[in-house]
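Example for tutorial group B:
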């Protein structure tokens, strides 16, 4: 499955509605990764094809992409200060944010240890 472009409204509908909920409550039915990026960002362009590969290799997770230039409200909610920033969302634990371009083997490790090991 290819990566999915995520708007602020789609985030509220499918991931978490921060306007109505105080405590984190993930709405998705699969673990997810959200890539906060911008088109002008060099490291973001390096990570993008890796995330596409991972999206195709891991049908049990959803990989979203958020253009921080377009979705400024969402970037502000997550206090995105540097891009790329990647949010890992396990099914039953708190999400984890990682700033910076991560190599594929590190992303695979996080997917296996944090996202898929707890999924049942």
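The residue assignment follows.
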């Amino acid at each position: 499955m290819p990566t999915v472009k995520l708007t602020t409204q789609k985030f509220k509908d499918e991931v978490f509605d921060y306007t109505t909920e105080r405590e984190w409550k993930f709405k998705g039915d699969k673990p997810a990764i959200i890539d906060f990026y911008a088109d002008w960002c060099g490291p973001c362009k390096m990570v993008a094809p890796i995330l596409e590969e991972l999206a195709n290799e891991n049908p049990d997770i959803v990989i979203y992409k958020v253009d921080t230039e377009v979705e400024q409200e969402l970037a502000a909610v997550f206090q995105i200060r540097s891009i790329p920033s990647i949010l890992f969302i396990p099914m039953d634990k708190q999400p984890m944010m990682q700033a910076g371009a991560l190599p594929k083997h590190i992303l695979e490790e996080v997917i296996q240890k944090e996202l898929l090991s707890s999924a049942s």
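The two ends are 20 Å apart (CA to CA). Compare this with the pattern of hydrophobic and polar residues in the output above.
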